[in-house]
Amino acid sequence: MLLVKDDAHDNMNIKAAYLHLLTDVMTSVAVVGGGLLMYYFGLFWVDPLISALIALYLIWASFGLVRESSAILMQFTPKGVNIEDVIKVIEEEKEIKNAHHIHIWKLDDNHIHLEAHLDFNEDVALSESNRVIDTLEKKLHDSFDIEHTTFQCEYARDDNKEVIA
Ligand SMILES: [Zn+2]
């Protein structure tokens, strides 16, 4: 349990393993302690009380884990990444008129993915769009820790320009 404790802060799987081991330890201690109290003092109510306390602790401790992993499974936009701020950074590029159809999600604890449509001001060559994409990749990585991007480059395309997050 102590060996995995340090890594439990930044990895959800290890945190789950840590909680599992922690409750195993607590249960073992409770069984021995409860057994002694029952054997020497006849305090039989101690047993269900300890069981209930461990169960409550486990529910409380796993709640955050369930919430966090559900957010990943449901592809929520990660906390700490504001879509409006991301759009602002993208639209700082003079070649880009508008960014829309934004989707930001996580596949695990650390890797943030982004997909977006980029509406260009001019009908630029693909090589020019590459240059803009390179700049955006770097800026989005530095500002928001976004590790993987997929851009759809558009010019005067008649599609939905809503920011769909
Ligand atoms: Zn579009």
Task: Give the helices and strands, then pairings.
Elements: H1 2-5, H2 12-41, H3 46-73, H4 83-91, E1 96-106, E2 112-120, H5 126-144, E3 146-154
Helix pairs in contact: 2-3
Zinc ion is lined by residues 100-101, 117, 154, 157, 159.
**Whole-number mean pLDDT:** 91
Query: Can you list the strand order of the major beta sheet?
Result: 1-2-3
- Count of β-strands: 3
Largest sheet: 3 strands, mixed
Q: Which compounds are bound in this model?
A: zinc ion
Roughly how much helix do the residues carry, as a percent range? Answer: 40-55%
Query: How far apart, in Å, are the first and last alpha carbons?
Result: 39 Å
Instruction: Tell me the number of helical segments per DSSP (H or I, 4 or more residues long).
Output: 5
Beta-strand percent range:
15-25%
Question: How many domains make up the 3D coordinates?
Answer: 2
Alpha-beta classification:
alpha+beta
SSE ordering: HHHHEEHE
Shape: rod-shaped
Radius of gyration: 25 Å
Provide the low-confidence segments as ranges.
Answer: none
